[in-house]
Amino acid sequence: MARGGIYKSEVKQARDSLLAQGLSPSIDAIRVALGNTGSRSTIHRHMKELEAEEERGGAAGQAVSDALQHLVGQLAEQLRTEADERIAKAQTACDATVAQAQAAMAEQAKEGRSLSDQLQRIETRLRDEREAHAATQEELHQERTQSATLIERIAGLEARLQERDTHVASLESKHQQAREALEHFRQSSREQREAELRRHEHQVQSFQVELRQAQDILTSKSQDVLHLNRENARLSEQYAERDKALRELQRHHDQAVTTVKELAAVKREAETVARQWVETHTELEQLRGEFQRREAAWEAERIAWHQEREEQARHDQRLQAIEGLLASLKTAPHMAAPSAKPPSGP
Q1: Is 112 within a domain?
Q2: Domain that includes residue 47, residue range
Q3: Per the UniProt record, which residue ranges are transmembrane (predicted)?
């Protein structure tokens, strides 16, 4: 922060130092040499006083008339004042442009953090979906094992039933009571098979409900990816606005260069403005590179999402195949029941 005031001796020392270095002792250059302190009006006043003192001290040894010397001093002061005003205007415009670019970069960084949080939430949901998918596969494996066990039990019951029918047929003429007991056994076996089939159908219905829930989750995830695509389009529009601002900054730079050509006495100050523009241009190029990297990241996320959808499609096909297998297992006991031989007459 600039201090309250500066002394004329300090201004004189800074001006002499710039002249010794071969630099032009402009108001901005003297202010920089003083550590960016003191107002321009104060520095300008001290400069005029120093020039007046030097003119009074060297008046006796000058060969030109006082009127001509005074006229030259006024012209030089007027030229310096006009040059300082133009440089101040160019500096103010450049500072405003740099401030706008910095604000845009801060907003871009904030949006980048927001997008990063959204991506993290999507990754968390994808991880939960994979875990749910693994649990579904585990339940499917258990269902297959249980179905195989039921098939083995049904086959064992049918084998036992066939053996019993053969044994009863051979002894039916002598054991009428054994035939009645066999009929009761058949009825019990049939009721047991029907109970097992009802339980199996209930398990199939539960699996179908879980399958619909997984499809609902996939639909929600598709909507999230659509939202991300809209965010990507919004970022593209913002990039176009940044590029427009860069062209406007280029136009201002061209105007500043034209002004500098007209003012040869302030060439070094114009070079300072040009360096500031180059720095601003570099920062905007970095912002453009950051946008391109984010766009590439969005493209990779979109590809990953399509791959996830393809994997989900394959998963749906496998589930449909499993449903077909369960349906065939459901109809198998009804087809196997008529295969039992009816008891032969006495």
Answers
A1: yes
A2: 1-55+68-85
A3: none
